[in-house]
User: Fold these one by one.
Assistant:
Number 1:
Amino acid sequence: MKLLRTIYWVVIAILATLLGGFCLPVLWFLKLIRLNKQRQRLIYRYAHWWGRVVLAATGSKVTVRGAENIPSGPVVFMANHLSIFDIMLLLGYIAKPVAFMAKKELAKVPVISSLMGEVGCLYLDREDVRQAVKVFRRGAEQVRRGLSMVIFPEGTRSLTGSIGDFKSGSMKLAVKADVPIVPVAIHGTREIFKGKKITPAKISLQVMPSISPEEYQEMGSSTLATRVRDMVAKGWQQIASEITI
């Protein structure tokens, strides 16, 4: 059964991604004739659909809590990172156009890299300080223009499921853009892919109260990183306690 589920998921993921590939010429044409609003609407609808469809193909059930905590306007979402399925979850279940700060290796993946570029994703080389500064500057400009961004402040996926330390440098994106930070706790996505096979899981997304620029402007980067991590950890614990009841 798990093997069939895995094959089914691979087929759906490939077809959903290829559909986006077929949309690329349309997006480029809309950009050429400067129909930017229509282009952004199409990008958001596709990304939202792709996230939901590809995640649904795993057979997993998703619960979202605290969606009312998301402010209007652009924000920076900061979440713990458990698996590649976190991206599908956030694209599919956050009711805003969002782009990601992604690792540079994804820039080499055909079709997906082009689609991520259209969404507004930026590729970060954490070993190149100058490149990272430029990427954060570009990200802040995108946020100021109205696109919300997602960043995983741990810097990498958790191998144990526990929440690691949040890098203080990750706070620069929100600070430069001067927008609210929305801490987000993710639970369950790590359980989807075990033993190299897809397994349905119970996934929870807990959106915590936002931190406004007025609240964090007097904080240092390290203090802010700790504050955001503590809020994500609190959300994770709320999910875990509800699951065990």
Note: The first strand starts at residue 61 and ends at 65.
Number 2:
Amino acid sequence: MNGYKGRLSHSATAGIAAALWSVACGMPAMAENAPPFAALLRQTENAPRPAESAAEVRRAQGLERQARAMPNPTIGVMTENVAGGAPFSGFDRAETTMQWSQPIELGGKRSARIAAGEAGVTAARARDRDARVGYAFDLARAYATVEIADQRIDLAEDEVEEGENDLRAAKALVDAGKEARLRALQAEASLNTVRAELDVAKAARITALARLSALAGVEEPYTGLTAPILDGAPEAAQPVGPVDPLAASSYLAAQADRDAAEHRLTAERRRTTPDVTVNIGVRRLQYENATALVGGVTIPLRLFDRNRGNIQASTAEVEAADARLARAKYEAEANARIALAQIDAGEARVLAAQHSLETAQETYRLARIAYEAGKSPLLELLTARHGLGLARGVLLDARAARFEARADLARLQGRAVTGDIIP
């Protein structure tokens, strides 16, 4: 892996350049390399995406707390028989009543509301874990994309270097009269092509770093990576025991959402039971100079509002949650089978690509020796070099696909790609 051994990687080169520039300008270096993935995942616990799902949990906890609240009583004061016609023109016959009214919930409404609130908290926590598992997966992919971009630059630079060597060899043969001027032009055109590919690879690296920085929620974009992830800790990414698709965070979140919807439906049905308001108070009879107790019960009549609309909406919500749960189950089962198959296929693909690369390297070496000795045309050398570049790219693509399969499997198991369990 040329980006991390044998020479300075482009991330390290960019970091050194940024530091030197900052020193030359008398300013502190603001941008920095991204830390190793495990450390980055810990450092970004408060990044926008995890923070959003954590806030949803706190929101559900607030609603659950509110669901436990009992109805507030009311207190009122009313004066009657004043400022009217005789004999009620003054305040001599005033009757003043102070009354306390307490609504009493019947039909299990409060318990159903509390159960719905608790289920909402459980669902929010399940969604939060699923969001954190998904975030770890996306962060790992973004991290690996930067590493892949670094290595594509390394491959492109290798091809540029080899193209320059081929061009020098072609010019030497042209100057010696052993090749036509056309051969040097062909070698130069091939070199220009790989130089353009190098520019494309550098642009892709800038894009990958920008996306990683945005996902991590950092102010200054990262300039590179401090540790590889593409081939790191492969033993930690291997499945341990059977993969249970029904233990996937996405399925558990859908199941919790379904349970919460069922509790909300129960709460809406319980709301159809009318509440009773108990009234008790004291009345002051001014004319008689006496005090008396008053009391009563108020029961609403279910003539117009029977909560049918809310019940219908909650019933549809349960049906939708059932459909999402079924879809999550099928997707989790399919993803488990796909991930396990891709793990095996990825390993086989990497091995095959490594063998192909070894063959292409030997082919290019022999073609170069033959061309410099004047025993083969330039076209064979360029073809061999092109085949070597393709083989290197195929190997990098195979390693990227293997990483993707490991990351998919880790997500199904509720782990980061490094093997850490996400609580």
Note: The helical segments are 10-25, 37-43, 48-67, 109-175, 181-216, 249-270, 308-372, 378-412.
